[in-house]
Q: What sequence folds into this?
């Protein structure tokens, strides 16, 4: 347990109207609490974790990237922030939820975290891991972006990348796949057994509000 303000990364910027924008970014797994009082709209962004690529498979499939969800609320009270496999924010009811990606299995890449299973006003899927079984393991899927689905990992080992989700890990031709990047990138597939696939990256919760 801990206080989000002490363990999160906080930034403050004052606008022309004299209000100060505070943004708290939380990227370490755990459960935290934040009291919001006397503020305007609060924007909550959740990104699920990426998943690992297939283990102990020659040219294994890449891991899926985590999903993205965004919610805007206008209320006071205590928020409960939980970051683990999924990323969620609640206050009596779930306000924001983004799902983890799926594990690569055999040659097949794992599906990205599904927007349809999340909670938010805006939701996007994580990228799907690339198919292995060719010259390298499949690339990891990119974490879901704030304006579109995350990019899929390539069947040639190229990582999913291109927007503001965490990059997937690249697949390898002979050794362990590269790990995904935060927030929510899926791991790259290994090139040869008995190597491990790359691990998925942690997700993220970002809370922005004016005071």
A:
């Amino acid at each position: 347990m801990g206080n989000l303000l002490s363990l999160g990364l906080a930034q403050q910027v004052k606008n022309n109207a004299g209000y100060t924008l505070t943004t708290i970014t939380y990227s370490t797994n755990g459960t935290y609490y934040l009291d919001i009082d006397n503020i305007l709209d609060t924007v909550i962004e959740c990104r699920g974790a990426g998943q690992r690529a297939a283990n102990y498979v020659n040219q294994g499939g890449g891991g899926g990237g985590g999903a993205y969800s965004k919610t805007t609320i206008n209320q006071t009270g205590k928020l409960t922030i939980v970051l683990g496999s999924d990323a969620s924010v609640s206050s009596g009811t779930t306000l924001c939820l983004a799902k983890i990606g799926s594990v690569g299995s055999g040659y097949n890449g794992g599906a990205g975290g599904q927007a349809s299973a999340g909670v938010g006003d805006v939701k996007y899927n994580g990228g799907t891991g690339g198919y292995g079984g060719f010259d390298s393991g499949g690339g990891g899927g990119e974490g879901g972006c704030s304006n579109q689905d995350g990019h899929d990992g390539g069947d040639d080992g190229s990582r999913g990348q291109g927007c503001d989700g965490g990059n997937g890990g690249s697949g390898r031709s002979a050794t362990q796949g590269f790990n995904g990047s935060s927030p929510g990138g899926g791991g790259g597939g290994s090139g040869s057994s008995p190597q491990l696939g790359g691990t998925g990256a942690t997700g993220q919760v970002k809370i922005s509000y004016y005071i």
About this structure: The two ends are 26 Å apart (CA to CA).
